Amino acid sequence: MSATEADRAVTLATLLTSAAVALNGLAKAVLMGRATDDAYLDTERLLSELVDMLRDRCQTYVPPRVVDSKRPDP
Fold this sequence. Notes:
It is built from 2 helices and no strands. It is mainly α. It has a domain at 11-56. The radius of gyration is 19 Å and the shape is elongated.
């Protein structure tokens, strides 16, 4: 794993953890009837960052090549 990939993995893990905490906090606030617009906006911002990072990772993903190209025909 290269240093760039390691940095991306750490950033992704951090964003996933932050999003989980934010969603848990928002769920508790909604359950208690104390959710505010700011809580929704903060959660939306975190989820948008996560979506952007996942989209970037998917665009740069290169699937592995088939090693055994001599598969029997069905």
